[in-house]
Design a protein that fits this description.
The complex is a heterotrimer of chains A (about 325), B (about 270) and C (about 270).
Chain A: H1 2-29, H2 34-41, H3 48-57, H4 64-76, H5 90-125, H6 130-143, H7 147-161, H8 173-202, H9 206-213, H10 218-229, H11 231-255, H12 261-271, H13 274-302, H14 308-313
Helix pairs in contact in A: 1-13, 2-3, 5-8, 5-11, 6-8, 7-8, 7-11, 8-11, 11-12, 11-13, 12-13
Chain B: E1 3-13, E2 19-29, E3 33-37, H1 44-51, E4 60-67, E5 70-71, H2 77-83, E6 88-91, H3 95-98, H4 105-116, H5 121-134, H6 140-145, H7 153-165, E7 171-175, H8 183-199, E8 203-208, H9 211-217, E9 220-225, E10 228-234, H10 235-240, H11 245-257
Parallel strand pairs in B: 3-8, 3-9, 6-7, 7-8
Antiparallel strand pairs in B: 1-2, 1-4, 4-5, 9-10
Chain C: H1 2-7, H2 9-31, H3 63-99, H4 101-116, H5 119-130, H6 134-161, H7 164-171, H8 176-213, H9 224-233, H10 240-266
Classes of the chains: A mainly alpha (about 325), B alpha/beta (about 270), C mainly alpha (about 270).
Chain lengths: ~325, ~270, ~270
């Protein structure tokens, strides 16, 4: 296990380095010269001599690899630079905005699990019945509902026609209700379908059938036997859907003018605020890679027989 | 002698209308063992699943199964729960696949006991250990804290037997409990089962493809082929004077296996 | 034929809708009642009526005409993006399946990165650095989708490689590339086709979503996501402005989803 985890850690670092290289390459491919752009940004005239000076100062006359190494040296020390537009350090600006976003993502994540696990299991156990078929057909349509449209519909019904909830900002818990609802509804559809198919698959396993012949109490059987055996696929589902929650948070925060991290990141591209884009992209990627690594650790705890390397390569 | 379980005109069909078990009837007496013999695909396992109401959803069943005056098809879910495990215990061909892979064996005993009886965790563990020593497992504390994949096939089958007998059921359904084991372990498990039924007044429905084993364990034998029970009767009758051609062939085959002598052992 | 349609009412309806949609997209200039870009301040923010079935927007443009013209911008790029993704998937996936060991491992680690990261993140990085413009948006979407196809096609090719007839044709000395194009790829096409159709609805949602965020198509384009964004800003006074474009996105995505589900059940 230890060896496997160290291997994993190594892969995690390699992955992150590759991603940072990708970000750096794109940055160098960006149209316009960074030195003159900064000068324009602060309102100065990009004179040839000053531009050349800055380029030398930033090491832009060096080779690509040297530039990358110098850049990576700064980045890995946590120096993400200052925002072009506000002049504030990117790192502190990001941290300020993490609160609302993490609350938004975490609460819709938890809510999604609470809704979809019981419904999915119930559908799986009643596979093929009328009720299952009706709900399943609804999920096919549900997968096609654009989050941005659903959010707007919610906003219109509960914010305009029948104004019971605030639709802008994040100052109180009530502000979270609509954004969280929109995200949860869209994500639950996918989760319900997945949990349903796991239930169908796992309740056919002989140890689940055998447990049924022992007449276990439902309050013991469903959580400790059936759900427990589905722990690994559900964990994988959680890991693989973190990115889609992040994507959904960008849309949701934009629609509900939610002052969070995702909106901050999106807005940076309209201002062409390179340090912010770079910093937040690296941050999100690092978070996701580390999250994946942590869930890998959980696999071991869940099932002592798991061999990670075999599992991951399967499509 | 009283009839404990009666299966009347059991029919099982699949979606296409093909008959998998056809008009089977037999009964199980208190304290006796009924062996259902047949090759794979003959419908013997389906019959046992029907008794436990564990048939896959795509199969349709008709007929009547009566356990001590209760018609099993008409039972509520709740009543079924107390019958499974409480009145009918079951063991299977692959014991390691019948135990949950990520729950320690002791926990599975405790869950079973506490599902049926209002006992404390401590009491349940005590009972489980007692049961485990009855099936001749030595280091019971070690077994209780192990996972199924850490034990051998023979040990797992003993664990399964102990679990099936934990609540002192009236019937034990044993579906080919030894055919996945090596010969030596096979014999040990058979002797253990024999001992256990002699000690208690439990009945057993023993499902096998092996006439030799059923000759040793059973009081009554039913021979099943292509979904039909083609012959049934007392062990002596079946083994010494088989009427059906298929049974005769089985007997010949069996006696050849037994040191090539022309007589049936244990008969 | 009629019985097939009768058994698949919903998929048939979905297919008809898609055919109609494609025709609408191609024939937009001839069938739309008004000029989609013509502004008319006397007619702004009119609710749906007979003259303007979908109403008009804040510049007095006819929304139905805009939705019709938007079809080609909202739906057709999806086919281009997915064709490129599939082509990359086929080339790199097949290549990777035949590479074996080290290079294959490297390829898979590379795909690992792209499947693990949110497509929104990749899009923001690409568009953020390279600038707005549809070609960058398509590049970003392809970047976040190619890895999935490479992995799946690699897996499928691996499976097909083991099939006896492939081994047989290899033994008989057929040339590698020929086996791949003549036998392997046609063999995996049904599965890839189903996946593609299901993904059409996801890519539609993604592309329109990007336009909605202001990253993709730009005003005054009648792309549905752009129209939805306009609608959001006039939600209190003209809710129809957002409703219809959003509904079209939903309907189109749902049609592909329904057909894809149906095909998947077939397999």
């Amino acid at each position: 296990m230890l060896r496997s985890m160290i291997h994993r850690l190594f892969m995690l670092i390699v992955t992150f380095v590759l991603f940072s290289l990708f970000v750096f390459t794109l940055m160098r491919l960006a149209p316009g010269d960074p030195a003159s752009m900064l000068l324009l940004e602060i309102g100065a005239v990009p004179e040839q001599s000053i531009v050349a000076d800055l380029q030398k100062q930033w090491g832009l006359d060096q080779s690509f690899i040297q530039q990358y190494l110098a850049w990576a040296h700064h980045v890995f020390q946590g120096e993400l630079g200052h925002s072009f537009s506000s002049g504030e350090p990117v790192l502190s600006e990001m941290i300020e905005r993490l609160g609302p976003t993490s609350k938004l993502i975490a609460s819709s994540f938890v809510l999604t699990l609470f809704i979809s696990i019981p419904i999915g299991i119930w559908m799986g156990l009643n596979e093929g019945t009328m009720a299952d078929r009706v709900v399943y057909s609804m999920t096919i349509l549900g997968l096609s509902i654009p989050l941005y449209w659903l959010a707007i519909l919610l906003m219109y019904t509960l914010g305009v026609i029948w104004p019971v909830l605030p639709v802008v900002g994040s100052s109180t818990i009530r502000h979270y209700i609509l954004p969280v609802t929109a995200m949860t509804l869209v994500q639950s559809v996918y989760f319900i379908r997945m949990v349903r198919s796991y239930t169908i698959q796992y309740s056919k396993f002989s140890y689940i059938e055998a447990a049924k012949t022992r007449g276990l109490r439902p309050s013991i059987f469903y959580p400790s036997y059936l759900l427990r055996s589905m722990f690994i696929p559900i964990l994988t589902l959680i890991t693989t859907s973190l990115p889609s929650f992040f994507g959904a948070s960008i849309i949701t925060e934009t629609i509900f003018s939610f002052p969070g991290f995702s909106k901050y990141m999106l807005e940076a591209i309209f201002r062409r605020d390179f340090p912010v884009i770079q910093g937040s992209a690296l941050f999100v990627a690092a978070f996701i890679f580390v999250f994946n690594y942590m869930t890998d650790l959980l696999y071991f705890l869940a099932d002592p027989r798991v061999h990670l390397d075999k599992q991951r390569w399967e499509v | 002698m009283t009839t404990l379980l009666e299966v009347k005109n059991l029919n099982i069909r699949n979606k296409e209308g093909q008959s998998l078990v056809h008009n089977s009837s037999f009964s199980l007496e208190t304290g006796k063992t009924y062996a259902l013999i047949g090759e794979s695909g003959s419908g013997k396992t389906l019959t046992s699943k029907a008794i436990l109401d564990m048939l896959p959803a795509h199969l349709q069943m008709s007929g009547d199964i009566v356990l001590q005056g209760e018609h099993l098809q008409q039972l509520s879910r709740k009543r079924w729960r107390s019958i499974r495990g409480g009145q009918i215990g079951a063991i299977f061909q692959h014991p390691e696949q019948a135990l949950h892979p990520s729950i320690p064996i002791g926990r599975q005993f405790v869950d079973l006991m506490r599902s049926h009886l209002p006992v404390s965790r401590y009491e349940a563990e005590k009972q489980a250990k007692k049961m485990l020593s009855q099936v001749l497992l030595k280091d019971t504390s070690h077994v209780m804290s192990s996972y199924a994949h850490e034990l051998s096939g023979g040990m797992n089958q003993r664990v399964m037997i102990a679990m099936a007998l934990l609540l002192k059921p009236k019937i034990l359904i044993a579906d080919e409990p030894t055919s996945a084991l090596d010969v030596k372990t096979q014999a040990e498990i058979i002797f253990l089962l024999k001992e256990l039924i002699l000690d208690t007044d439990m009945s057993m429905l023993f499902i096998t493809h092996d006439l030799l084993i059923s000759g040793y364990l059973a009081d009554t034998i039913g021979v099943m082929r292509e979904g039909k029970i083609i012959e049934q009767g007392s062990k002596e009758n079946i083994l010494s004077a088989p009427e059906h051609e298929y049974t005769q062939e089985l007997c010949r085959h069996c006696s050849q296996r037994f040191l090539g002598k022309g007589e049936i052992p244990y008969a | 034929m009629i019985s097939i349609i009768r058994a698949n009412k919903l998929p048939t309806a979905a297919l008809l809708y898609i055919i109609l949609l494609i025709i609408t997209g191609l024939a937009a200039p001839w069938i739309s009642p008004y000029d989609p870009f013509h502004t008319n301040h006397q007619q702004k923010l009119l609710p749906p009526s007979i003259a303007h079935p979908f109403g008009t927007d804040y510049l007095g443009r006819d929304l139905l005409s805009r939705v019709i013209h938007g079809t080609s911008e909202s739906v057709f790029p999806v086919f281009i993006v997915l064709s490129v993704v599939m082509l990359i998937g086929l080339l790199v996936g097949t290549w990777s399946a035949f590479l074996g060991n080290k290079l294959d491992m490297l390829m898979m680690s590379l795909t690992d990165i792209f499947t693990a990261l949110p497509s929104m993140l990749l899009t923001i990085v690409v568009v953020g650095f390279l600038g707005f413009g549809m070609e960058n948006v398509y590049f970003a979407v392809i970047l976040s989708w190619w890895a999935k196809y490479v992995r799946i096609i690699r897996g499928l090719i691996h499976d097909v490689k083991k099939e006896p007839y492939i081994t047989a044709s290899r033994v008989s000395g057929a040339f590698g590339l020929r086996i791949i194009t003549r036998h392997m790829i046609p063999n995996i096409m049904p599965q890839i086709g189903t996946m593609l159709i299901l993904d059409v609805s996801k890519v539609i949602l993604t592309l329109s979503g990007l336009s909605f965020l202001g990253i993709g198509a730009q005003p005054p384009s009648p792309e549905w996501g752009v129209m939805l964004l306009d609608g959001k800003n006039y939600l209190q006074v003209a809710p129809w402005m957002g409703f219809f474009p959003g509904f079209m996105i939903f309907l189109t995505a749902a049609s592909f989803q329904i057909i894809g589900e149906r095909l998947r059940r077939e397999r």
